[in-house]
Structures are given as structure tokens and as C-alpha cells.
Amino acid sequence: MTDKIKSINLDDNQSIFFARELEYIKSRSYDIEYPMLKATQVIPVSTEAGPGAESITYQQFDKLGIAKIISNYADDLPRADVKGKEFTVPVRSVGSSYGYNVQEIRASQFAGKGLEQRRANAARRAVEQRINNIGFYGSEEDGLQGFFNNPNVTRVAVDENAGATSTKWADKTPDEILADMNNLVNGIVEITNGVEAPNTLLLPIEQYTYISSTPRSSTSDTTILQYFLTNNPFIQSVEWLNELKGAGLGAGALDAGEDMMIAYDKSPDKLTFEIPQPFEQFAPQEDGLEFKIATHARVSSVIIYYPLSLAFAEGI
């Protein structure tokens, strides 16, 4: 790094200052959290493929076979076997960069002030935002599958209210809202004969704030959300997710663009967001009178290993 800095006439003190500042900026940009980017919070992340992977292959297995009562000398034992399917998804690179020119470095060193941190933050934000979008929506042109548009997940429309005029929670009673939540969760358990049991429910912000602040009834000091968490035997956590607003693709008779909720088992055994290389920064590169710092990550699809472990309900 020092030789490159000297090549455009930074003196030793300026070179040392720049090197130390970049180390500080790098550590600070890694510390910054972006709570609004929630893909990596609500979807279990896997980095096990490693940064060198060009694709990720995974398998789905189904057990086949029956057993029967046999005689002592039976030679017609029924055969058990395993049937598997193999899937491959590509890995793509995501990149951004930021930089400082020679005069900015000299001026900062002369004034005893640090280099501007916001440029590094902006570069990281750009990379993380792209990863977040891929996590939820995928990238069709890059062959990447997201959380919301997986074709194998059960997608249903919620029931209309008692007046048969609306499916929206704003038009429903607390009992009808609770029925929507329980029907989605319990439906996963029923359709899989108890093999799958969701533990997490995701809601758009509007619906989440409504059920967390609306009483269960006019005579109750318990909210709809509190009542649901206390009485549903499966769900351990209800979380808000802004991206669920208008995320529906059109279930039943509903048009696309409806608000939706998701019930799922938040376990890496059921689904993972493949990020073989999390955000990283490289050494500065001299470009004329500027030093550019490249940032990079490697990302793939959201892999849902057991599609029946989650379900989407639209129209809330």
C-alpha cells in the first residue's frame, strides 16, 4: 500500500495517515448495522459454499417403502428406498466502490481530521441493499430465486369477512383476524400430518402494528397479538417485515399486489439464504489522483429444502 501511495507524491506521514484511516474506516463500516434490511434476519444465512463457489447444488430426498408382517422363512421382503432430486443454483458477485483523491487525504491529514466515513457506509449500503433485494425477490436475469417468488410454496387467499365484502384485516373483527392467522399456521401442520410445524409468522408493518395495539375484545386488556402468541401452540415469534406490503402474486381470486403474511419454520434445515462471501473490502487501488476501494460480496438464491414447511396467505 505504501509504495502505491508514494507513487503519487504522498509523503511518509501522509501515507501512514491514509493507511491508518482506511483501517479505521474499514472496521467502522463493518460495525454499522442496517435494521431496515431484514432479509438476513428473517431467513437463515448459509456461507458454507465459500467464496470460490460458482454454483451450489443441493438435494431433496423422499423416503419410500412399506413394511409387512412376514413368516420365518419369507423371501419376499418389501423394499425400502430413497428417491432424490438434485438442484443447482448459480452464485453471483455484487460490488460497489468508494474513493478519496490526493488533496482530500492531504487536507484531512493537515487538519488532523479523519477521512469521510459516509462514502464507505454508502458503498456497503449499496451492496447490502442488493443482497437484501435478491433475498426477497430474487433476480430472474441472474437465475437467482428469492423468498417471496418461490414457485413450490403453498399460496392461499384469506377468507372474506362475515359480510363477504373484504379480506382486509382493517375490515375484520379480532376473531376473524385470529382465524386467518391460525388457519395459515395450522394448515401447514395439517397438510403434513404434523411433520412440519412453523414457529415464525411474518406480517407487514401495518397489520403488525394493528394487532399489537388492538384489544382482543372490548372487555379485554390483551391485544390480538398477545392472545395469538399465548394460545397458538406452534408460533413462537411474530415479526414485521416491510417488504410484505404488496408482495402477493395473486392467490385464489386475488390480483397480484395484495399484502401477505408468511408462516414458516425459521430453521436452516428448512431454508437458507446462500451468501458464500459476505461483504468485504479490498486494498486501495491508485487511479490517477484518486485511490479507489472496491467492495464485494458473493450471493446466491434462497433455497427452500422443504416447501411444505412454509405457506403464504394473501389479501390481509
Question: Which key phrases capture this entry?
Answer:
8 helices; single chain; alpha+beta; Major capsid protein gp5 fold; 316 residues; hypothetical protein PF0899 fold; 5-stranded mixed β-sheet; 25% strand; 30% helix; 4-stranded antiparallel β-sheet
What does this structure look like?
By secondary structure, the protein is α+β, with helices and mostly antiparallel strands. The protein folds into two domains: 2-56 and 88-146 and 272-304, Major capsid protein gp5 fold (2-Layer Sandwich); 154-267 and 307-314, hypothetical protein PF0899 fold (2-Layer Sandwich). It is built from eight helices and 14 strands. Strands 5-14-8-6-7 form a five-stranded mixed beta sheet. A hairpin with a 2-residue loop joins strand 11 and strand 12 (290-299).
Q: For the terminal residues, how far apart are their CA atoms?
A: 56 Å
Helix residue percentage? 25-40%
Helix/strand order: HHHEEEEHHEHEHHEEEEEEEE
Strand content: 25-35%
CATH topology tier name of the largest domain: Major capsid protein gp5 fold
Number of domains: 2
- What's the average pLDDT? 88
Task: List low-pLDDT spans.
Answer: none
Number of strands: 14
Biggest sheet descriptor: 5 strands, mixed
Query: Helical region count?
Result: 8
Derived from helix and strand composition plus strand pairing, the structural class reads alpha+beta
The backbone outline, from C-alpha atoms, is globular
